[in-house]
Amino acid sequence: MAFERDGIRIVLINGSARPGNYTGKALAVVADEFQKHEGVTVVTLEPGLLGLPLPGVDPGSEAARGFAEQVASATAVVLATPEYHGMFSSVIKLAIENMGFPSALRGKPVALLGVASGAIGAVKSLEALRGVVSHVGALALPLSISVANVQQVFDAEGRCLDQASERHIRRLATGMMEYVHGHICPAVTLERVLREGLTAV
Ligand SMILES: Cc1cc2nc3c(=O)[nH]c(=O)nc-3n(C[C@H](O)[C@H](O)[C@H](O)COP(=O)(O)O)c2cc1C
Questions:
Q1: Domain limits of the chain?
Q2: What pLDDT is attached to residue 6?
Q3: Pocket (CB within 6 angstroms of ligand 1)
Q4: What's the gap in Å between 137 CA and the centre of ligand 1?
Q5: Is the pTM of this model over 0.85?
Q6: Alpha-carbon Rg of the chain, whole angstroms?
Q7: E strand intervals along the chain
């Protein structure tokens, strides 16, 4: 697991490629919250801008390999999606298609964030995405965050205009850190003690 050598590494994946997208604005709040935690490195990936191949076309491509390696090196992953036509985006699905088989997500904690311009938020997208994430063997955390009416929550510069929404979005990062510290870190430390003896930690 990545954090033993390099600290805790959180990979955030933006499922929108739209210029000025709101998914990225919400994800920036999540990144900011993660960065408050000591020993955490945050990497944001933009799969819609990486030239990832369509499923089954060129899985050995440099773009696909580099992307899967970034995900594989993560202690934990956040998948962020806009709601497009009642579903998570094709960009987020393409990202998952390019994580290898078995998936680089397998066994990793994954938190889900969805944003939508509509009043019902991204609930449908998040439920469907949870199914895919579970299918590839990742551990989807129970709390998904859905941001409704997102154009009213952020301004064009990415400032969050609503404190309650901002607290809600930040909760995604604090929940993930609680999970990593409570479940991943102790397991890795125990494994290291078993391998190297008590002097290892
Ligand atoms: C192709 C497309 C389909 C969309 N479908 C929906 C939808 O089903 N429900 C909804 O609330 N908003 C929908 N929207 C609006 C997005 O939720 C909105 O653009 C929001 O800002 C999130 O997307 P973004 O991260 O790309 O900005 C759609 C937008 C696009 C471009």
A1: 3-200
A2: 62
A3: 16, 18, 21-23, 82-86, 115-118, 150
A4: 28
A5: yes
A6: 17
A7: 8-14, 40-45, 76-84, 87-88, 109-115, 139-140, 145-147
